[in-house]
Design a protein that fits this description.
The chain is α+β, with helices and mostly antiparallel strands and 82 residues long. The protein contains 2 helices and 4 strands. It is rod-shaped.
Amino acid sequence: MGFKIAGSLAFRKAAEQADPVLLEPVMKVTVIAPDEFMGDIMGDLNSRRGRVLGMENAGKNRSSTPTCPCRSFRPMPRTCAR
């Protein structure tokens, strides 16, 4: 019984000193849309806790490469597609 208590106390102390961080999986996606819709798309990505890594011109469209947590990511609606 003493070993169980000593083990649990040692584990608790080690966990406090390690300062653990909870991580979640993220996806890197590519969004290509007309320039006029990029404001709405950026707002949608921010609401999904996404972080934009960069934006580039892709002809008449703009290409954005954000990372989004897998839990809050759903495919973008295709209502803006032409």
